[in-house]
Amino acid sequence: MSKRLKARVQAGGTLVLGARGLSLYVDGDDGMRARIKSAEQNGRRVALSALTPLEVRRSGQQGKRLAFLLSRLDTRAVDDSVLETAGRLLDATGLDGHECLVDAVVVATAALCTPPVRLVTSDRSHIPKLCAAALDLPGQPSIGVITV
Fold it and tell me: Whole-model pTM above 0.70?
């Protein structure tokens, strides 16, 4: 990839897939495929937390499709910065780490992506609260929520 193209991709922001977004993509949902195609055409990275594929595990042909699609996406490691950010988000929202751990890691992953960031999720309770709390993090990352 040329430096010019790479810079353009980074400048376009990031579309982050939560479990439902990835699941729809694996299942061939036309709307999700169109959303991802549009993001890529507009220079956005399509990313997800390394935990998300564990939530969407598949076997057989669907497992092979999942592996193929993951090879085309930017899977972000759950490193110390993600864990620290997730902890801050849980503290800020007062949400329970046992119940909301994966949601916090997904939002922390999104918060650390290249802006503007949009997060595709089906969650209407924890994710929006965690995204709102991200505004108080260093750099004040704004995460738009796309509910599917």
Answer: yes
